[in-house]
Amino acid sequence: MKIGRIFGIMFLSMALLGGVAACAGTNGMMDKKMDNKMDNKTDSGMKGQMDAMLTGSDGHHAAGKVSFGMGMKSKNALTLSDIKVDKVPDGYVYLTRDGDHMHGVELGMLKQFSGTVSFDLPAGVNPDDYDSVVIWCKKFNVEIGRAYLPKKMM
């Protein structure tokens, strides 16, 4: 008797799933395509939402994802998520061109070395003008990690 109920439940489940899939039709496929396109852009025209990967430099460990989005107070923000970075006394995050932190935009001090942190971008800073993010230790004058940003999404 239990086996009959199990098969009955499985049959009913498959029938319901088939009905849901049929209702989705081509509109469901179009929605998915639109969702994929929207995932690659932000409303403000910032770099695509594709994550850049943070990697270690100069023998240091750094890992995680870098992305742009909305931060506090509806400002554009850079987010470092799922990070694991070597602890350094004064690691700062920079938005850079070709990894040149000296001519980049300092976003702030890295106060935690794991998890997720966000930095609001200063007014007038366009992320599309930069191609990398660098974590730099000022005290020891050494790069801890870097992420190369994806090209601007059309």
CATH class of the largest domain: Mainly Beta
Could you describe the largest sheet, including whether it forms a barrel? 8 strands, antiparallel
Please tally the helical runs, counting DSSP H or I stretches of 4 or more residues: 1
Order of strands, main sheet, comes to 5-4-7-8-1-2-3-6
How many E-type strands? 8
Percentage of residues in strands:
35-45%
Low-confidence stretches: 10-45
What are the salient characteristics of this protein?
8 strands, Immunoglobulin-like, alpha+beta, 154 residues, 2 domains, 36% strand, single chain
List the SSEs and their pairings:
Blueprint lengths: L1 H38 L12 E5 L5 E9 L5 E10 L5 E6 L8 E5 L4 E7 L11 E6 L4 E7 L6
Antiparallel strand pairs: 1-2, 1-8, 2-3, 3-6, 4-5, 4-7, 7-8
Descriptive overview:
By secondary structure, the chain is an alpha+beta fold. It has one helix at residues 2-39; strands at 52-56, 62-70, 76-85, 91-96, 105-109, 114-120, 132-137, 142-148. The chain has an eight-stranded antiparallel sheet with strand order 5-4-7-8-1-2-3-6, with no helix packed on it. The longest helix is centred in the first third of the chain and has 38 residues, at 2-39.
